[in-house]
Structures
1.
Amino acid sequence: MNKVLVVYASRHGATRGIAQRIGDVLRSDGLEVEVAPADHAAGVGTADAVVVGSAVYMGSWLNDGIDFIKRNEVLLAELPLWLFSSGPLPGSSMDKVPSGDPLTDALGPEQGPGSGGRKKIAEITAATYPKDHRVFLGAFDPDDPPTATSERLVRMLPAVKKALPAGDFRDWDDIEAWAHEIATTLMSPAIPA
Ligand SMILES: Cc1cc2nc3c(=O)[nH]c(=O)nc-3n(C[C@H](O)[C@H](O)[C@H](O)COP(=O)(O)O)c2cc1C
């Protein structure tokens, strides 16, 4: 149980940075690690465990992240799997009153208006049984041009412009602690039945 594949879907690099840091920690804890973008990761290959993370935009994971999980669903269901979302920007006025549930704050409600992105996550979760889905604070640089037409249009909305705080809010201690937890789980001898 020592080869870990860390896959990420990122538009502007914040999620890539989180994936790379998770990879660094897993390596320093003695695991063999490959970090790859979701659109270039051919498959799960010979990995013994997989970590998949995506940036969240308007309540949804990026398609690359969802597609990677869907095309590897059968194998991932058999492997230890961890998911992470890179999303919330603290102080964003798009955050309504915090719900107490990080997934709801990043991806929206489980049901009703605005639940489309969350439902996709519920589907992949039901199919692959991840051990955990962690939400990490993200980063936003307004000077970094939009990479998708939808993002360009959304950023032009005055309400969104006001709502998105600029800055790098990634909490490296939180990210590293989670990566150490993953390493500990993978390196623990299996508990005999
Ligand atoms: C137009 C726009 C919409 C966003 N929508 C959400 C959202 O719905 N939920 C959330 O948690 N974060 C949202 N964010 C924050 C990003 O997900 C966060 O900045 C993330 O770390 C970016 O990752 P990347 O650099 O890997 O693309 C949004 C950011 C932008 C610019």
2.
Amino acid sequence: MSGEAETVLELDDIQSGVLRPRPAPYAATYIALRIDDRSAGRELVRRASGVVTSAANPNSPLADTWVSVALSYQGLNALGVPQESLNTLAWEFKQGMAARANALGDTGESSPEHWEKPLGTPDVHVVLATVSPDPHRLEAVVQKARKTYQELPGIKAIWRQDCHALPSEKEPFGFRDGISHPAIEGSGIPGTNPREQPLKAGEFVLGYRDEIGGIQTTEPEILGRNGTYVVFRKLHQRVAAFRQYLKANSTDAEDEELLAAKMMGRWRSGAPLALCPLHDDPELGADPGRRNDFLYSEDDSAGLKTPGSSHIRRTNPRDSSIAGVVRIHRMIRRGTAYGPPLPPGVLEDDGADRGLMFAFVGAHLGRQFEFVQSQWINDGVFFGAGDDKDPIVGSNDGEAFTVPRRPVRRRLQGLPRFVVNRGGEYCFMPGLRALRWLAELKT
Ligand code: HEM
């Protein structure tokens, strides 16, 4: 066995939310805090290090319930992390999400000037995320998390977002999510696609070798080791507009479902077109052992089953022939839904805010999140589709969507934007030792 194959992650120093998929069903809460006083900030981090769960013990008394803590660049600065240490973190992180708006396609309605305040302002210092299998257990953990900041006068809670699994257990457009996750070497947590070679740990956690052979470290090493970057985005979903588009561009209800599946790459049940291209197979969609067991190139290089432009094939082209190397653009996702579901069959917008709190986890903000968002979602050049964008989450403004088909392809026009970014931030989720180091900063 080679040395690299023996990589063992220090699970007891890694926050649980980094590696463990969220429970299903789930309830979650995100709380943003501002640090007005440095010593209160350090005390907050000290207390947080006591409630944050590590990835080591899935059978802890809290079971599937966990608290994670992440800090923005401004947050680390507010704690007094020396500038020479801050400079060793990713430059995109230092800029913050609002400053990266153009690169991310956060333009028009998604641009920072329209974001929900205080998202996108320098006030977001700390994000506490709590996730649990049900609202009852969540409340107990939120209470515990609240204790970490409530009695600290220099700390202010400035934003909160509650999320919960919809009764259908699907995301607001109606698709099963939380299906495909990469396998990570040394994590002991199995991936979902048996055909995907586990990725090097350094793709997701700082301090380990990555797919390119590099090891990301910070100065001092303890700050970064076992930490990772997290991207939070509150993505509003226009469910009525999505349903209207499907209806207007299909011949009947069956065709509507096929079109929805062609846009996503999976039927709403979660069953992939790659394995059942003609009809939905709900049993397959519900089977974690089979529903992600596929590649594209051998029998579907032309996208006749799963269009190259569909959401899942764009965001993870697997073995498709594209410009570039897929394995350096993989990511861990932790999406949780917010807002009331739009009742089935309703085609008119009811004005409610609903969508996904999207969370990315990975060690390389630039070549993972930003690359996928800008090149694979908001451009089509990488697989020869010009400037076509992701039909579901792209920043569309009348673009087209192509469904390869014989004898003639199906080309849909006039895609509107179905997903609007309401704001977010780039954060760093330190390891548990790093949290204690931050709490003990002296200057
Ligand atoms: C509201 C916005 C979004 C919705 C409704 C959505 C929905 C979905 C659904 C239903 C799946 C298939 C099931 C699964 O594997 O979990 C999926 C997969 C995926 N999505 Fe999204 N998504 C959204 C935004 C994004 C964004 C912004 C990114 C990246 C920047 C992204 C990256 C991915 C990736 C990497 C996969 C897995 C692909 C695979 O391995 O097959 N998604 N998404």
